[in-house]
Amino acid sequence: MYLRAAYMIGSVSAFILLLTVFPMQQGFEGAKGLLVRRVAQDVEHISFRLLKPEPLLVQILKLPRCLSKGIVLQPTLANISSLGLQPIHAISKLAQSATGSRVVGAINGGFFMAGTSAYRMCPIGLLIIDGELITPPNSRSALILWSDGTIGIERVSGSVYIQLSDGRTIPVMALNQGIVANGVSVFTPRFGQSTLCPDSKDIVQIVAKAHSMPLRPNAPLEATVTFITGGGDIPIPSDCIVITARGKAVSTISNVRVGDELRLIANLQPTKGNIVWALGAGPRILRDGTVSLEWVEENFKRELLFTAYPRTAVGLNDDSIFLVVVEDDNIRGGRGIDALSLARLLLELGCKDALMLDGGTSTSMCVDGEVVTPSGGVPRPIASALLVHDFLPVGEPVRIVIEPSIIHALPKARIPLKLWLEDEACHKMPLRAPIMFEVSDPVVNIEGDVSPTLFVAGSPTMETPKEVLVRAKEVGGKLVGETRVFIHKAPEILTLIPQRIFLEPNERVKVSLLAETNDGYELYYDPDSVSAILDPSIVTFNAGNMMLIAGSRVGSSKLSVELFGVRAQANVHVGKYWKVIEEFESLAGITTRCVPNDGSVSARAELVNTTAFSGNSALKFTFNLSGASGTQAAYVVFNRVIGAPLKLRCAVYGDGSGVWLRAQLKDAKGVIHRLTLANSINWSGKWRIVECAVPNDATPPLLLDSIYVVLIGGNPVKGSILVDLLSAQYPQGE
Question: Looking at domain 493-574, which CATH architecture does it have?
């Protein structure tokens, strides 16, 4: 199969055709809608869809391995100068303000703790920015820029420790990653303004003034102790580090006094010289031009690799760097991509070495300030990002840019145009003179001057696709720009979105209609060309604004729309109802399990009849998440088929433990969906109803695997909650 680029021509050099014929030999068939756009000096944004092995959306930022002058690739923290959580477009905006650059592209960075603890924004794995060590390595791979200007992927290990004035050394279990039970942690000013440490009697905190900052790999940081205190959220002065010991580790620093000298040392291996920046994640998935899934060597769980999720990766070859995000194409039933398929895709792109970054809901890309992934446009807050900065000065304009730069349209379509000027490095500038248009065929007209609209006057009887060239010229100037219009007499693919529509009585819901070519290009069309049929007619449909309006009747219907002889259908449901899945009158079919399954976490399920929310009894769920480090979870397992619900809910009698309460579903494609019922069980002594929505991309029938409590980092927790009246919401007619 071949991945063929359609014409993507804007002006003489702003848009380029990168891949005319791209051989796809690893099972990636049906590549559609390839678009290539130059966004900065030697930086291109590439996008396309894949139909096999799964419906996928692929976005790529491609830049030279030897970066052009003025172009800088660098990781950043979400809050730039300190830890935090921000969505990708907000990070781009903050970085532009802090650096004075134009951030032309950004992808999400490495893993972070997430969850609900105070330390959920802490990065996991190696992070070095401007030579400063922010978080230590964990023997996993990292993307590294060395001081000689070379960029590569290396598996980095190391240790961080404190050397006291008496010569003793104390291992540091966490650097800017929160506090550790029975261990020593260190906070630097990069963490933030304060330690966020709980007010606990088993904690000691030591503030030490550094002789020089910041902390750098393989370079001891010397400091003098200035203050010693107990638990509590204390400030981190800009010229100090804070050492925190908890539990049994307190005895290791009990002899430290104000005025003592100490050294904070971070040794990293291997080193090829000084590191300018490093972004740790993993695992490595390509090595020397061969698929190499190094998840065992880097201590990753198999599930992370071989389950389909949205993914983010960095690929390298001798000449180029590829920043790649791949997400499921929900419209066409996609479910993401596993690590093996991702490695093969990167191999197809020409990469020799590749590293996975954080993925799943973290996968996100921003191009010139616009979110392109996720396609829904609402990215998750993340802890770090990898940015492409443009520091080049703005030059003289050399072309007019017309957006859209390529148009596929049906007869009678009207398309608003945006125009601006660009210099050679793709910096945008406003128009400086009136614009006149020329068209190669009068079947296309340009209406209006200030806000021009392109009108397609074709007819369904014309031979199509018909290509028309539209050229813009400055009045009294030399600058020009072009866009190409391809007129089609009918859509080749027509899809109603969503294909299952849910309304309450008297509710209004807006739907959308996607018209496409077989090559995967979206077609512009006139809404007045759409006709609709509803059977039975329990709702009304306005094709002009694509609005469904329900009446007072409940039930189901089928919506059929037609556009130039092509039809699309969707099921419509008015009204919803709740059905009890489990009322906990017995424990038949209910079990428990723990993660990790090594005896350090415990779970017990039993019935009690003293405080039931409904019926005669409730489930008492007792858990102990205090014996292990890392992610700990205790599950109540149902393993029950529940069809295609819209929501899940249950009643919970809280204990104030603060744990995260979630539900786990498995869909018909084997995809695991983890849903949040409560971010924190922060109530106690009373019942509360909690619920969560089931994602639209979960393929029915669904299996309710479990509900569970989870702790990611933070303080150990023991608790006991009551659960009752576990229910699912379904649409009328299903």
Answer: Sandwich (2.60)
Q: Give the residue ranges of DSSP H helices in 65-166.
A: 88-99
The residue assigned the tokens 């592209």 is 105
Q: What six digits make up the tokens of 90? A: 């907000």
The domains spanning 493-574 and 578-731 adopt the same CATH topology? no
Q: Are 156 and 289 in contact (CB under 8 A)?
A: no
Q: How confident is the model at residue 14 (pLDDT cuts 50, 70, 90)?
A: very low
Q: Which of 578, 734, 710 is nearest to 650 (CA)?
A: 578
The Cα 733–Cα 420 span in angstroms is 51
CATH number of the domain at 578-731, please? 2.60.120.260
Rounded to two decimals, the pTM is 0.83
H or E element that contains 344: helix 339-348
**Given this model, what pLDDT does residue 713 score?**
59
Q: Where are the domains of the chain?
A: 2-58, 71-111+281-390, 135-269, 399-487, 493-574, 578-731
3-state secondary structure labels for all residues of 575-642: CEEEEEEECCCCCCCCEEEEECCCCCCEEEEEEECCCCCCCCCEEEEEEECCCCCCEEEEEEEEEEEE
Say whether pLDDT at 13 is over 50: no
The least confident of 226-235, 536-545, 575-584 is 536-545
- Rounded distance between C-alpha atoms, residue 113 and residue 124, angstroms: 7
Residue 256 has pLDDT above 60, yes or no: yes
Q: What is the pLDDT of residue 27?
A: 53
Q: Which helix (H) or strand (E) holds 345?
A: helix 339-348
DSSP label at 526? -
Region 399-487: CATH code: 2.60.40.10
Return all residues near 157 (Cβ < 8 A) that are at least 6 apart. 137, 139, 268, 269
CA–CA dist 185, 176 (Å, integer): 8
CA dist., res. 688 & res. 143, Å (int): 46
pLDDT at 65 (0 to 100):
94
